[in-house]
Amino acid sequence: MMETVHVGLGDRAYDIHIGPGLLAQSGALIAPMLARKQVCVVTDENVAALHLDSLQAGLASAGITMEALVLPAGESTKNWHHLEQTVEWLLAQKVERRDLVVAFGGGVIGDLTGFAAAILRRGVGFVQIPTSLLAQVDSSVGGKTGINSPAGKNLIGAFHQPRLVLADIDVLGTMTPRDFLAGYGEVVKYGMLGDAAFFEWLEAQGPALAAGDEAARIAAVRRSCEMKSEIVMRDETEQGDRALLNLGHTFCHALEAATGYGDRLLHGEGVAVGCALAFELSARLGLCSQEDPSRVRQHLREMGMKVDLKDIKGHLPDADALLELMGQDKKVVDGQLSFILARGIGEAFLTADVPRNVVHELLAEELSRR
Ligand code: GLY
């Protein structure tokens, strides 16, 4: 049942294994990469309570011992304090350059642990074992690691590719439906940005996938990882094409900032709303037909996801303030807002050529419907 996507990055190439029961097989899969049979695992309280025993047993079945650092769950862990704690703990565990550190959790743990591995002894190898759908299809792949600064999200970090990614589909079974659907926002993004046939497949299979269909989940994670790895192989450090992965993100980052990066709007929910806005903007600019944003919205609606600004509860600032927040996005170059727009489903492209008044009008209209 295990599928493998290879990320061909020369001497930094690695495999992403996707399938059920991978925690149980983790020892067998990791052992060939180890100089000595011990690993340090960084995880969070939620994941530890649910899955750390399974990981420990899986590693032990290949004779690998582990020590674990269990951090608090949540975005606020991605900070200097927990980075320092993690690095100092890894040093106290006497992790050497030839050892592997294991990041066992969602995007927060993956980003923080990957960054700790990047700076520890000027770089030790690490393995990603992502436990959320978002981490399996996005953050565990491609080597972006880092922490947040009081000045903004993900502003401190490094590119440091993992040596292996193990995406155990069974682990997704313990996610809340809301978190799962937030991760699905990133899955559907891949179809929208570069693969119309995948989008069509998701229109048909999305409901089964959300309900727990294993084969559909494996296929969706595999195709997402394949698409991400193809883009990362073309443009590892985001000089060009990799920016396509940010479809919906300029809107999303502004909405996350406006809602306090918390429970009101999860990142993947913001991505879905942002993608709907990006398609609407594309249609208004005459780049794609009006049917495309309608089709995007309809699918997100059918999946029970947030689609429009009116789906975000509580106060939102006005269009000027949202535009101002969009201007603070770290992808802004020379003060120019850039957007990923689309000529159709599966045909995204990057442009800085978007009249501010069209974006303003779109946001003002969407806000007036709330
Ligand atoms: N999540 C976007 C990227 O990895 O480039």
Question: How do the strands and helices of this protein lay out in sequence?
Answer:
Blueprint: E1 3-7, E2 14-19, H1 22-30, E3 38-44, H2 45-60, E4 65-71, H3 80-92, E5 100-105, H4 107-119, E6 125-130, H5 133-139, E7 144-149, E8 152-159, E9 164-168, H6 177-194, H7 196-211, H8 214-234, H9 249-258, H10 267-284, H11 291-302, H12 319-326, E10 339-342, E11 348-351, H13 356-368
Parallel strand pairs: 2-9, 3-4, 3-5, 5-6, 6-9
Antiparallel strand pairs: 1-2, 7-8, 10-11
Helix pairs in contact: 1-2, 3-4, 5-6, 5-8, 6-7, 6-8, 6-10, 7-8, 9-10, 9-12, 10-11, 12-13
The structure holds glycine (GLY).
Provide a descriptive summary of the structure in words.
The longest helix is centred in the middle third of the chain and has 21 residues, at 214-234. The mean pLDDT is 96. The protein folds into 2 domains: 3-174, Rossmann fold; 178-368, Dehydroquinate synthase-like, alpha domain. It is built from 13 helices and 11 strands. Helix 2 links the parallel strand 3 and strand 4. Strands 1-2-9-6-5-3-4 form a 7-stranded mixed beta sheet, with helices on both faces. The chain has a two-stranded antiparallel ribbon with strand order 7-8. A two-stranded antiparallel sheet has the order 10-11. By secondary structure, the protein is α/β, with parallel strands linked by helices. Bound molecules: glycine (GLY). Glycine is lined by residues 138, 142, 144, 242, 245.
